[in-house]
Amino acid sequence: MVKTVAVVGAGASGLAAIKCCIDEGLEPVCFERSEDIGGLWRFTNIPEDGRASIYKSVIINTSKEMMCFSDFPIPEDFPNYMHNAKIMEYFYMYAEKFSLMKFIQFKTNVCSIRKNLDFPSNGQWIVTTEKEGKQNTNIFDAILICSGHHTIPHLPLTCFPGIEMFKGQYIHSRDYKTPDDFRDKRILVVGIGNSGVDIAVELSWMAKQVFLSTRRGAWILNRVSNNGYPVDIIYFCRYLYFADKVLPSCFINYITERIVNERFDHGNFGLLPKHRFYSQHPTVNDELPNRIISGRVKIKSNVKKFRKSDVVFEDGTVEKDIDVVIFATGYSFTFPFCDESVLSVTDNNISLYKNIFPLCLNKNTMAVIGLIQPLGAIMPVSEQQARLATRVFKGLVKLPSAQTMIADVELKKQKIANRYDGEFISR
């Protein structure tokens, strides 16, 4: 009997999930709440509720050689690092090549996913969706959740005393689209992740002054590495993977930090982080050092408090007459359509075996795809996750016992805690 699979979301992970279902002879039905594929990478001038939102200039931080799906290489004439419009073009080509569009129901919101009454015996799920005000309910044999984690802005205003007194404008980076409205303004960007740095650099070309506040600094990588090759092609290879497994982590960190500092000394630029290189994701930006050394971007410490038009920083300095604050403080994620007994998010963390499978299901017929932040592109990782999940659904791969999966998750949590304080949002 052909198993039916509900796929939630038609972004990069959702497209890979549909393709893997087809490969395994499963029957996918994808529910996409927006009007098109692409998820995070589809630019719109106005942020859409329930969907990731990017700024117009976004260029991906991974090369085309490392981000493409395994069975569909990106065309040779595409640039190594692609603008979001080019990524969308690739997604359309991928969807057309494998006839994925016919499996997608657009403008369809998933309202709820709950266990069928006979779940202990058949592992089936009841999925309720809504389209144009009309609800529909269907039963599926399995679920692939590909809804991503860049949808709900994390805006911790309680961490910034005095923000309610601030007379200027403040927004989350999700609402930033172009620099046009920020000409000749004094702008503070809070957060030194990829979005925060990209926005600060872009604004520095037309703003009166840009300040970039960071709580802990960051290691900055440039896209172009040795001999002009993409940085991920140089460093994401089997040789270095093997070295990481056999050499002490302190030595690997020392060598990498030395190489990164050869481009520019992070301490001299006010960016030297408190953590080692491999303890957190690095920030990728080619222009930041140039904008700092030219004075167009000034690095500031963590914000202590806001005044009516001024900002006081933890190092005691004050910047006056700030017009705009952009909080690039990351995102939260939830699964509002799914019962907490199945998918429970605590402090922006969730326990999943292999970052895919919910724990304690007596039938492993649900998988979460793409809910990770890899050192590299998400596309091939999501593809591998979906490939494993669909083979589990078919019974070709058997997962360990619930106790073994729980122990594995706890062990990984402990390893992460030993390297990093566990905070999901980096500023």
UniProtKB/TrEMBL annotation:
GO terms for biological process: lipid metabolic process. Its EC number is 1.-.-.-. GO terms for cellular component: endoplasmic reticulum membrane. It is an enzyme of class 1 (oxidoreductase). It is a single-pass membrane protein. The keyword NADP applies. It comes from the Eukaryota. It is found in: Endoplasmic reticulum membrane; Microsome membrane. Keywords: Endoplasmic reticulum, FAD, Flavoprotein, Lipid metabolism, Membrane, Methylation, Microsome, Monooxygenase, NADP, Oxidoreductase, Phosphoprotein, Transmembrane, Transmembrane helix. GO terms for molecular function: flavin adenine dinucleotide binding; N,N-dimethylaniline monooxygenase activity; NAD(P)H oxidase H2O2-forming activity; NADP binding; trimethylamine monooxygenase activity. The keyword Lipid metabolism applies. It catalyses: hexan-3-one + NADPH + O2 + H(+) = propyl propanoate + NADP(+) + H2O; heptan-2-one + NADPH + O2 + H(+) = pentyl acetate + NADP(+) + H2O; trimethylamine + NADPH + O2 = trimethylamine N-oxide + NADP(+) + H2O; hypotaurine + NADPH + O2 + H(+) = taurine + NADP(+) + H2O. Its cofactor is FAD. Belongs to the FMO family. Broad spectrum monooxygenase that catalyzes the oxygenation of a wide variety of nitrogen- and sulfur-containing compounds including xenobiotics. Catalyzes the S-oxygenation of hypotaurine to produce taurine, an organic osmolyte involved in cell volume regulation as well as a variety of cytoprotective and developmental processes. PANTHER family: DIMETHYLANILINE MONOOXYGENASE. This is Flavin-containing monooxygenase. It comes from Hymenochirus boettgeri. The lineage of its organism: Eukaryota, Metazoa, Chordata, Craniata, Vertebrata.
